[in-house]
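Re: folding output
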Amino acid sequence: MDMPGYIVLSRLAAQRRATDALAANVANADTPAFKASQTVFATQLAGRDGAGALGGRPVAFAQDRATWRDFSPGPLQTTGNPLDLALTGEGFFAVQTPDGERYTRAGRFALSPEGGVVDAAGHAVLDAEGAPLLIPQGAARIEIAGDGTLATEAGPVGRLRVVNFANPQLLQAEGDRLYVAPPEAAPQPVERAAVVQGAVEGSNVRPVLELTRLTAELREFQFAAQFAEKEGERVQSAVERILRRR
């Protein structure tokens, strides 16, 4: 394959990643606390020193650099469930999984048979001390203040562990709307958490905008694919002409 073929292949790979990200956004437009993501691309020049140049000029390849996630809050959806919680400001709830502490903004919690507050997957929700949050047996009323303090008719129980990160883009999505923090991204407690009881945060995906972007990316992918097909035909035709001359 010659240089134009490699260029268009780099473009096709970039367009496929962009299309996959947008398709995931559209599919999760109704997923509570889902955060939209976009791919980040850069141009890598080849041939600055003359090697790999095309017509004496540098060649630009599309390079997939990273995925950027939009952590802006989604709209609140009122449920009336006392263990449905939403964060109106920055931060994440902390839960304990078999693989360690994880972070989420999907606050659709429930009570386990043992009285522990758990997420939809059964992971224990943590308190400010990093221990599983427990509700006394027989509690009839659960109240959660704006700062995350949980109380029943018997008195205070504990306070939710709400943390934030200096650079949330370092968080890695792990499925089930959970994020894992790499070693260089240490969680910091949020001193003034903004917790809303009886509501959950919706997805921040804007379906109309994402569908428009998806349509545009699909067209770009089709154009690149057509170019690759024509380039393949050109190369095949050139090879056949060379062979006929022999």
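--- second protein (sequence, then structure) ---
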Amino acid sequence: MSVMEGSSAATDAARNNESLVRQAGIGNLLLASLNPDDFALLAPHLQRVQLELNSVIAQAGAPIDTLFFPEAGVIGFADVLKDGQRLAVALTGRDGFVGWPLVLGNDRWPHQAIVRAERGTALRIRAADLVPILAGNERIRTTLLRYASSLVAQMARTIVSNLIHPVECRTARWLLLYHDRVQGDEIAITHEELGVMLGVRRSSITDALHQLEGAGAVRGYRGRVLVRDRARLEALAGETYGFAEAEYRRLLAPTAALA
């Protein structure tokens, strides 16, 4: 190898090293919790990308080619009906990842995934790079499977809440799910979006928010909701909130709990 070739190779190596995602200070709780040796297997394949508000990062029925580990921002999963209606089934953020069906053996997206509440960043990895790593590393595979199990618990509680709980309790629950994942106490969300998530009319959401405001739990503004008293909001949510969150902590300890 010539001196020039050696210099070029060293430069390329330095650039690759600079672009490598470091585990220290990483925003995603799952990746941050991994053993450093396990994270090192993923690092060369991770790329930090922007999550723009209201952008769709997965379409129901499409192949799962790319997975995302959010560092900030909220990702909503929604069932899309034939008439175009979307019904929210779950949320994730820096506590989890988008692409969990892949680790359960499904190579297609069952839901639409859309960025909600605020823009953020995520670490992106190709399915083609992740699958062989999961096949050879039980610790990483177990972490992702445990998260998938906690998300199934969240979805199950969504079903139960939709069946038996009043709209004001369900509204309180969804606001708590958002509040867990946004930075600060302000949630960018409209009455229309909440109506879509809960499968109810906008007037029902307006009435529910008035009840939550009257209790001093939140303050509604145009296109946003401010959480004023989280403890009060949790009390108003009642049984709709807490079970799935406890499952997350149980399954993923010592991973940090939701903020």
